[in-house]
Amino acid sequence: MADTNELAARPLEGKATADVQRRFEPDLLSYRSAAALAAALANKVKDKVVGHEVVIADMAVLVDFANLEALYVELDEMANDFTALADLADAAVQRRRAATPPTKGAVVSLETFAPLVAVTEATPALAALSTGVSTALGLVSLFRQDVEFGGRQTTVDPLTFELALAGALIDKGAKRVVAVDFEVAAASNSAQSLRGRLHAVHTARAKAWTAVAPLVTTVAKFEVELDQASRAKKQDEVNRLTGDLAQLRREVQPLADPMSRLDSRLSDLEKKAMSVDEKTGISLFARWMRAEAIRERNPIYLHATVASSGGGFQVARSLWRTKAKVKSSGGVVVRWALLATSGEIANAGMLDATEELEM
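Predicted structure:
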C-alpha cells in the first residue's frame, strides 16, 4: 500500500470533461459568425444593390433557369412538329378529295376525337461530418491542470443565413429583396412564357389531330365496307376496297405514328412537371414558373451560401480554480457571387468569420 504521507503530498488532479456533440455553443457561435458575414457581404455589394431588386439565388434556382431554357426549346419543337403533321395531314386529305369524289351519304364525324383535340390548361435539387480531437495538456506539481479540446462540424440553416442576408441588404438600400423559398409566382400570360408555349403546343396538337381525323375515320369506314362486301361475297368490291384501304394506310401510317409519339412526349413531360417533390412540396412546373417570374423582373442576382462551418471548445480545470473554464468557438465560410442575368459573374469571392465565447 502506498505511504499515506505520499498521498497527502500529491496535488489533487483537476479534470473536466464535456460531450462535444451535446455542446450548443459552437452552433450558436457559428450562427453569430453567419450573421456577421451577412452584414459584411451586404456592405461589400451595397453600391450595386441600392435601389434595385435583389434575388438571393441558391443553386436550385440557377438550375431552374437553365432547365427553363431547355423546356422552352422542347415545347417549341413539339409545337412545330404538331403543326408540320397537321400540314401533312391537310395535304393528304386534299389529295384524296381531288382524286376521289366524296361518296354520297358518307359522313366523317370527329366526335370520337373530342378527347384528343381538347385543349387543356396544364399548370404544370449537402452528410454531417464530425471529427473529434482530444489531448491532455498540463503542468506539473501544484500547477497541474486537465484540459480537453473538442471540435465538430456545425450546421447553419441555409434559409436562416439567406434571411439574415436579406435584412442586411435592405438596410443597405436594396429596393426589394427576394429569398426564393418565399417567392409566390403568378403565371405569365405572355405568348413566349411557359404557359403561353404550353398552350401553343396543345393548340397545335388539337389542329394536328383534327387534320388527321378524316384520314383515320376513312380508314375505319373502308374497314367496315370491306367487311360488309366480304360477307356479301362481292369479290370485285372486296378487291377494290382492299386496294384502297392498303393505299390509305400507307398514307396514314407516316402521320399516325409520329402523332402518337408526340402525344407520349407531351404526356410524359406534363406528368413529370406536375410531380411534387416530397422534400420541398413543390412541383417542377411551379419551380419553372417561379424562375420565369423572377427572371422577367430583371433583378440583380446574389448567390451566397455557407460553404463550411464548424466549432470547438476547450474545457480546463486546475487546483487554482473551483470552476471549470470553458472556451467555445464557431466559424463559418461563405462563398458568394454577384451575377448578371446571363449568368456572367460580375464579382465574387469568399468570406470567413469566427466567434468565441468564454465562460
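Summary: The first strand starts at residue 53 and ends at 56.
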